[in-house]
Amino acid sequence: MIVAVHQPNFAPWLGYFRKIAIADAFVFLDDVQFSKGSYTNRVRILSGGVQTWLSVPVSFNFGAPILAVDIGSDGFVEAHLRRLEVAYKCSASFRESWNDVEAIYNSLPNAPLGEINVALVKMLCERLGIGTQFYRSSELGYDNFASDDRLIALVAALDTNGTYLSGKGGATYQDPSKFIEAGLSLEYLDFVCPSYRQVGGKEFVSGLSVFDAVFNLGFDGTAALIRS
Prior knowledge:
Blueprint: E1 2-6, H1 14-22, E2 25-28, E3 42-47, E4 50-55, E5 58-59, E6 70-71, H2 76-88, H3 94-106, H4 113-128, E7 133-136, H5 137-140, H6 147-158, E8 163-167, H7 176-181, E9 185-189, H8 210-227
Parallel strand pairs: 1-2, 1-8, 2-7, 8-9
Antiparallel strand pairs: 3-4, 5-6
Helix pairs in contact: 1-8, 2-3, 3-8
């Protein structure tokens, strides 16, 4: 079994969904400390050819885990839909994608940020045809472990002979020998987003929200890009 672990980010980039698509199981690391200004509550989109942040307002106490971060104000769903409509109304696949995106937003739970992010990613995966099994670290436990030891414990809880699929950044701090000693394999994903035509953009901008691809390529085109 291939297992990937990542914080529940908000409407993340295509590389996040590529990792989910490759994995047999994906664990939302929802009980680690929330980091202000991270991709947990914001993501970049392209508006008028300019990169801008699409942020979820939050209210939290310093040191709080992601699952305990509350939404800071009402109305972010409506605000986001307005921003996305203005930014992408001239994109190639806006008409075919808008109703689905609007429905997904309107189906988000009235809940803390972690719950919202998990629900959003799962709904997007369903629409993109990604059938990976999802778990949450807060349900699996092992919160008394840190760093590599936590990852090893989470993977082993799902498959004692499993493979941990890490982002390429993990190579700077992970100790491969620990995974081997635990009977696990370690692989790295280095996803380079294929370029596609972006509305208002002169040069391709990578790392944007999955919504950028959806409005420019449609859900089917985005799914094909993730699997390419």
